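Hey all, sorry for the wall of text incoming. These are the two entities for the joint prediction.
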Amino acid sequence: MARMRAAARRVQAWIELRSEDPEATSALAVAVARLVTARGLESLRRFRVFELAGALPARATIEDLLHRSTQFYNPHKERCTLRLRIEDLPPLAKGESAVLVWDRGGERRPAAERWWLHETGRKIEVREGVAWAPRFAGGSDPADAIRELAVVRDRRHGLLCNPHAQESRIAFGEVPLPWIVAERASSPAAEGGEE
Amino acid sequence: MSAARVAVLQFPGVNCEAESVRALARAGLDGEVFRWTRRPDELRDYAAYVLPGGFSYQDRVRAGALAAKDPLLEALAGEAERGKPVLGICNGAQVLVEAGLVPGGGGVDLALARNRMTARGGYFARWIVVRIEASSCVFTRTLEPGTTLPLPVAHGEGRFTSREGGRVLALARAGQAPLRYATTRGTLARGFPENPNGSEAAVAAVCNARGNVLAMMPHPERALDVAALARTVGGVWGERRARAAESARAGGNGDGAAGPGLAVFLGLRRHLEEA
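and here's what came out:
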């Protein structure tokens, strides 16, 4: 167990499959075929998003720790993009927005927190959600279409989040950091770019 | 009189279709697997429908979420509107909830969320006890309110919940929760593991107001014979299991004695005979 210098902060890790994601492929096919307002949906990608909060080491050490544990991702099958500052861009392509979904009250990852404590001697909080990255064809109003895609209302409206058990947030521009536990008014993005 | 035809809907990833057909046959009904590749309008030819357990579409996006958007569900909603019975078991229940067929009213009004258990998470499989509640549900009509049944559960997302606080309890009070988790003595379950998933108001099943659509998390099709009951099952049903085992050892046919799950399918048959 190696002690290391650490500073209190939050980081965000975006995990994406290196191959085509079958879950996103299915979601895209169903959305385009069945949902009233998703006809213009051109692509849909999916990321697992971890947020780590606490006394965290430097970027290289965090990357190494995430890389080493299957609690976070499998480097043979997935790639990880780390965001330490709001200026660090998430791995979104041009035209993509981001819809974050997490289980209400079920976002903490105790097993990952125990692993981190064992490896570093430091207690941190680990939360996980899913970020969907839809891109709509030009001409349609993506904001309205993304809102309609995000939250389930009935058989013809909404897919990604069942609001009776899940929370969702949408970022049309800058992606907040932190995002799963939003700190209202602490981030300009939370006021301007997020719902 | 020929047996009523019942469609057992199978989406990719559903894996309890064979035992569901067997359960219907045991109740004197003609069950037939109806796969997702068939035309939705063919559903009209059936008197009732069962959505069995499994992992439709690998639980992608959310358990039941993708199957709920299938045109078969749109057709099924039309048949349910005409009063035909629909039973969703486990993943089938998740599909009915995500499709808004229960508790009914058009929109998605509930969720079957991830289990909330004491000192553990994820998938959970166990024999539990459910108590029959007063309701208009056609599937529990042969059972007196207060009756307890041991049934198996096996799921990771079985917690009935709503963002509207008190919604699930209100459904129970309105007679739309025909099965609730209970202790072996018949009192409502207060916590884990009697309530195996943290479901609000200990609700194990929700039906629509008319009572012809039922979404239930326990698996009645896995409890057709008393010999199938776990040795941990006590009470009256435990005694029946012991007697059946003794009869089988003596060369009798005790193994074939009806188990607690058969009542759900017998309720369907009674309803179809009287309809």
